[in-house]
Amino acid sequence: MNYPESVEYLYALGNEIRTAKLGLERMTLVAAAMKNPERKYRVVHVAGTNGKGSTSAMIAAGLREAGHRVGLFTSPHLVEPTERIVVDGRAVTAEEFAEAFAAVHKVAERMMEAGTLDAHPTYFETVTLMAFWWFAKAEVDWAVIEVGLGGRLDATNIVEPQLCVITPVDYDHEAWLGKSLDSIAFEKAGILKTGVPAVLAPQRAVARDVIMKRAETVHAPVMDSAAWPVAELEIDAYGSRFMAAGMRIDCPLAGEHQVDNARTAAVALHALNLSPEQIRFGIETARWPGRLELVSEQPEIWLDGAHNPAGARALASYIQRFHAGRRVGLIYGAMRDKSVEEIAGVLFPLAAELIVTAPDQTRALRPEAILEMEPHGNARIVDGVAAALGQLGGCEVWFLTGSLYLVGEARALLVQ
To answer: What is the pTM of this model?
Structure first.
């Protein structure tokens, strides 16, 4: 299959969240049939609710700075599925993506014909296996693997990592992971392995207790990033600079929450024996598109995939701190399975003007339903992202947020 055909087949497997299969049996079987490509390199495994993508990107950048060949697997993508599989800072090409798909698909079909596999791997299982296979083919030294959903039963959890990292745990995907914070933390903590060191970002007390209990059970030594106090913090609308454990860290990612993510990445890289210079210069080269990303200056437009309550609170804090006194506009769209009422309640009061729209997805929530949940005195409904971007005016700065699908559509239009 070529690239369009492989992508079409993946989408035909169903939405990666709605058709998610929590469990490792299928992954274990197919990976073994592929000669366990995930064991051909060293792995850093990263779980959490918010910050795991940016933390993964910073860890990968640090390892590259140290001279290693590095794979990075993240999800979801913003524009093209190729973005999920990255080697040395470059996403795979369409041809490489199709080649990796063919490698997994061929094995899966053979196993289904033989009756040794119950069904084709799901969308996310397939792409995860593709990443594992491609990283082995590319002969990476390290792979930084971001968990997709939860941790304990996530498709990525067949790896045998050298280091585990857990970023802040908060509410998200409650239908899959449980309604309580301790049940969600239990799933995230499931990535911890016997005797494998772990780096822990600052956590709510309930989540921390659950994670530490799991760490004690599997005898995983824990390095707490909070043990590196932040000093001499300088933070602006575009990034931050600070000292931690005598080390200078320059974080190029916007938002106060990125200070904790950068510190967590620095602790992880220190645990991997990188020098302070390698850590500093690596982190400052990290890029993480679609998360407080400035994509236009005239008009000023920021993209941020704040799709859960914690992400919304982080975005609200950023707007209040760095754009106070400015007339702020908001373009918002969301998926039906998100905590829209809570997120809108955090963000909508900050907007002088509100445009409500919907990404081009079957799971998108109708704009009318969003405004029924959280009315706004200066709101209008616009059909589609392109049309919304054509109606900016009256505000000094615009934030487009609520869904990574929405962000992806906007980024495809605004970033060439």
So the answer is: 0.93
